[in-house]
Amino acid sequence: MMDQNFFIILCIFCVSQSVTAFNIDPSSWKTFTEPKNVSFGYKVIQKDASSLIVSDPLIQISQSQRGQIYNCLVTEGRCSSLNINVPSEAVNMSLGLSLVQDSKSSKVAICGPTVPKKCAAATNYRGICFISTNNEIKPPIPSPKYRDCLGQIDIAFLLDGSGSVGNYNFQIMKTFVTNVIKHFAERDAQFAIAQFSGDCSIHYNFAQLKIEDSTWESKVAGIPYFMGFTYTAKAIQKLVNELFITAGGARPSAKKILLVITDGQSTDPKSLPSVVSQAEAKNIVRFAIGIGNAFDYFYAKEELNTIASDPDNDHVFKVTDFNALNNILQKLEENIIAIEGTQTSGDSSRMEFAQDGFSAAFTSYGSVLVSAVGAFQWKGGFQEYFPDYSFQTGREHESYLGYSMAVATVSSISYAILGAPRYKHQGQVTVSQIRANLDKLLDSPKPQIGSYFGAEVCVVDLNSDSNTDLLLISAPTYMEPEREGRVFVYAFTSQFIFSGLVLVGIAGQMGQFGSSLATPVDLNGDGFRDVLIGAPLEENGQGSIYIFNGGVDQINPTYSQRIAGSSVQPGLRYFGISFSQYSLDQSDDSLPDIAVGSIGAVLLFRSRPIMLLNTKVTYNPSKIPTNVTDCTKPLQNILTVCFTMSGFKHSLTGLAAIINYTIMLDAKRQKYRAYFTPKNRLHNDVMNITLKEACKIHNFLIEACPEDALNPVSSELTFTFQGLPSTSIIMQNLRPVLLPEIKTTTDQNLDFEINCGTDNICVDDLRMDFNFSGSTNIEIGIMQELNVTVFIENKGENSYNTLFILSYPFGLSYRRITSKQGRVECVSLDGVQGVKLGETTCYISKPILKDNSQVVFEITYSINKESTLGQNLTLKAEVTSGNDKHAKSSEFFKEKTIGVKYAIYIALIRHENSTIHINFTAGKKDLMKPVQQIIKIENDLRELTFKVFIKVPVKVGHADIWNNSSLQISGCTMEKIQKPVTTNFTDIIKSSRMVDCSVAECAEFSCDVTLIRNERILYNIAANVSSGWIEQTGLRAAVFQLVSSASVDYDKSKYVFFSSDSQQTATSVQINTQVEVYEEADLTKEIIGGVIGGLLLLAIITAALYKAGFFKSQYKQMLEEAKRDAGGQPNMPK
């Protein structure tokens, strides 16, 4: 049952590797528990060097009291309950659900946000916070009056603007009105202001003066002073009829309050009883405030009593002067609250479910911020107390603004950081400048529904200079395939900006990483505060904590230590649910301790002293002799290993450690030349060390007359560090730990003697040079490789272990080496952009570059076609050797530069939607046909800024080609009109049938273009082409080509055009449109000739048939048949 209760609290009534070690001792030093507890450890504070404050907000003390605060004494290891005088109305308040300490004082805020209040419409939930200063508990905040049942209330101010008031006092009266409004700002209240003198003016009705409007105070201050008589009754009559109605913004279910402020008797006293009766009939509760000596007289007093509602003692106020108005403010407020109705209209809630104190934070001004997540239908918000400021409301319903809270300080300006984890189901954080109403909203960089972004916020002052450097925002239910929870890191420049860094826990754990955050202290002593992050649901609810170390301006993204609850103590639940926000040295060992809460226990962990370790390896003799005559007898040598331990930024004593180490002789060679015993070059040993140098010697043998008597014997020392329990009483068995940056592997060379003449000193004279193998420029995108030819010469004595190092920029990649003369071996490591240069290291005639010898070789690098190398590329070369001395004439360094150009490819293409053909009828003037010539420009290789020049023929002779004499191309500017190169245009057009800039005037356009890679742009030459210019040619049937052209220009000092031809020149394009002219056909002669020919043909056919007897034979037969029919005799067969 407890687990269920715990999660209800954790979600705030949501109606809406076991140990990775660094320097926190994973064994808890102290554990505090209580026999009877439900959620002991939910919050914890390291109050001072000897005590902690721990909360158990869910323990049921009695039927009406829930929550307990404990004071736990470190030395005694036990806790006792704190005596806090909880008001009787604070029923089941969950005391200690919020617990926070002021970093600059002894103040502690203890809050219980679940105080129920049974009201007519519903049970309200408010909250109470107690501020403890030097163990003294101040009266709770908010004041008990704010926990009363809240309803709707409409308050109207009727201000006396008569001549007796005066402008100065009228300003004071307006300030009083402003203060009254502020005291009712967090209630469901509306306000209206009217002024009366000879007449009455309603300056703002209930719908016009909204406290949500940031300008409302300036509106009140801007009300002008009228002067005149004192027609009080007339003014009340107007408000009853025109203000306390729906049209005036009044709400039917709201309590109606009228505050009349006047400095004397009215001009129309006889009308007062009548209008007051009308106000009474409308249930308008009236308060009368009389100012000055005028109300010492009986009739003036009676007038106030008439205006005010009964009883007069509660509704009539008298003050000596205007400056005394604020003296009645509190009493007036209490009296209004006493008659305030309960909201029953069904409108959105305001402060009824506010749950004040769900989170709290102290400011640099000494005040305290208290959040109310349920305010205004769970928009949430916060309020500053001591002094009291107006409530700051959230923006979105059901967002829970104030679920978490912290205060950031930058350049003495304080910012309230408030989480709203249910904002639009994804979460949001508000950064609000305190006392300035300037907000900055931070949305999740990786939005996810249900992630609870903003559930915890934490400010980090990395270098403890009192200026906030980072903001941590957790999303503990952010889901990933292998983990749950993220913490996003924001950096502060001029505002908080997401740094790109996200902190996460180990994979395979769904533990709500980020449920708690703290930056208590610099734990590892490097001068930068570190970060604690809790994951209380890891390992099936046993929980774990993570430690991330801070740096110069950021947090190390990899945690330095993880402590699992299961490794600390069996049975822990939700280990890491809370941290003390500030760490103190409670173990009295001069090192900070951290307090970690779980459900049922609070554990104190000590930080371990961090140690430096200096390692030294020496040989005796220090050189290997090379003038040995007996090659069968191995050479003897002594290796000495020394360790010196010292404190890292501390001077603690009584510390010791065990060093387990391994020595490997000649570690860099597979076939080794040194050994401890035949066939064994390894030796393991153990050394106990303290804060003094500790050494051990080891004898070994070296092969005499080895094949390689030049390259040194390199011995590798590898060790582990294990701190021993301290013998110091203060340190109490604490074990030191090694600084992680200390290398646990070292190499130490044992060199061979070098024989160089009688002085035994070899003086080489190295000369080095290189060139770019004939290249004058690098052409990025065209050249695939860059060849660098290197010359190295030794004009002195032998040069040992000669090295050539060539540094090259990111964008070049090492490919190969080609030896031209001598022996050379090279290795290379390409550069990392913005981090380091690439470096090619070449071993020249290893091991000896003999006197008067030369080596020539070529290094080939591939060129990344996407790289940006600037306008010049610089290579730096260095040659070194193992010789102790070098000739003064040696040339060790060279630096050379080669120009860089970048390949570009711009395609100019005729667009498929360009007009191919138009035609005109010869002889008809002023004909028009629409034409569009579209040029498509494509940029293929890289972002480029260049110019496009477009030439369009616009005039032949004296005739315009286009109907628009001021032809325009969108995105381009017409530079000039270019005259044709010839004046004999007629003959040329007749011959070539081509109309271009050689025969026509052309408009030349210039277009500035910037295209990214693979982007394209279109330029459209569009207008109507006229037929008038064709008449000048004298041709009545022809097909002309109307030719526009386009070309590009670019910075040839930076770019080179990539093309398949050897010229590498940019392309151009011509856009042709066929313009045809033809004669209209006349068919009259053809029609007449056809008709005559048809008639002649018919006559000839008729004559031919006649001659053939066709018409005659038929006629005779017809006569005979007619005759037979006339006789009437049938033809009978015989």
Description:
The termini are far apart. A hairpin with a 3-residue loop joins strand 12 (189-196) and strand 13 (200-204). The chain has five domains: 113-128 and 349-607, Integrin alpha, N-terminal (Methylamine Dehydrogenase, Chain H), CATH 2.130.10.130; 153-340, von Willebrand factor, type A domain (Rossmann fold, 3-Layer(aba) Sandwich), CATH 3.40.50.410; 610-750, Immunoglobulin-like, CATH 2.60.40; 763-901, ntegrin, alpha v. Chain A, domain 3 (Immunoglobulin-like, Sandwich), CATH 2.60.40; 906-1078, Immunoglobulin-like, CATH 2.60.40. It is mainly beta. It is built from 14 helices and 69 strands. Helix 4 (232-243) packs parallel to helix 5. Mean pLDDT is 88; it is low at 1-20, 341-348 and 1126-1134. Helix content is 12%, strand content 42%. The strands form 15 sheets. Strands 59, 61, 62, 63, 64, 65, 67 and 69 form an eight-stranded mixed β-sheet that branches. It holds the Pfam family VWA.
Jot down its keywords.
about 1150 residues; mainly beta; Rossmann fold; Immunoglobulin-like; eight-stranded mixed sheet; 14 helices; disordered N terminus; disordered C terminus
Beta-strand residue percentage: 35-45%
Rg calculated over all Cα atoms: 49 Å
CATH homolog superfamily of the largest domain: Integrin alpha, N-terminal
What is the typical, i.e. mean, pLDDT?
88
Runs with pLDDT <50, length 5+? Answer: 1-20, 341-348, 1126-1134
Report the strand count: 69
CATH architecture of the largest domain: 7 Propeller
Number of helices: 14
Alpha-carbon distance between the two ends:
137 Å
Organism: Carassius auratus (Goldfish)
Family: Belongs to the integrin alpha chain family.
InterPro entries: FG-GAP, Int_alpha_beta-p, Integrin_alpha, Integrin_alpha_Ig-like_1, Integrin_alpha_Ig-like_2, Integrin_alpha_N, Integrin_dom_sf, ITGAX-like_Ig_3
Main location: membrane
